[in-house]
Amino acid sequence: MTTMREQFEGHFFDALDFPKGELVPMVIEAIVDAGAEKDARGKVIDRPIFSFKGQTKRLIVGKTSWKNCKAIFDTPDAAKWIGKTIHLQRRYLKAAQAFGQENCPCIRIVPAVGTPILKGAANWMGSATPHGNVPQPQADVPPLSPEDQEFIATATKELTGATSIEELRGYGEILKGKSKAVQDALRPTYGKRNAELKNKENQSVEDRGIPRSEGDG
Hints:
39% of the residues lie in helices and 14% in strands. The protein is α+β, with helices and mostly antiparallel strands and 217 residues long. It has 2 domains: 4-123, no CATH class; 146-216. α4 (146-160) packs parallel to α6 (180-216) and α5 (165-175) runs antiparallel to α6 (180-216). The radius of gyration is 22 Å and the shape is elongated.
């Protein structure tokens, strides 16, 4: 008999793909409607499927996470979720919710603290930690407003296109006035570009030094 994990292996995210306890940010790239695709056995997948930027695996989205997306983005129109960031987490269900399997791992889209979610969705969020710990249906993720998300998208392009350390530092000063959530979202892009520009600058200095030393000789 083919297990669920074997059935979707290599194509879709499994709960064990996510580090225990970590919230993993993902940017929604596309959404496939429920019933539009079939699994490895030819059975119709009766749930929506999310694909994400920079990821080869996709996510089969259950009712709980779908309801959470409605709450996170304050709209049932899934087309408006494209390009937005969500946070995925491995969570654990009680035996009564998982056909008798205690601490059954699952994937949940986790809303930020303060996001009002339906009671039904909250009840099925599971726990962030196994072994009977109290479920925590909402994670400590600062909410991102539409304005913040738009700023992050624009700033990512500008940071990536920065041509000097001085220009990058100018963007850094602007980021100091933004929320921690925005800073955290842009920190990897800033750090990567900073390292690239420093390497480029060091290489340029070395290149200029080579002919000068030869001429002095």
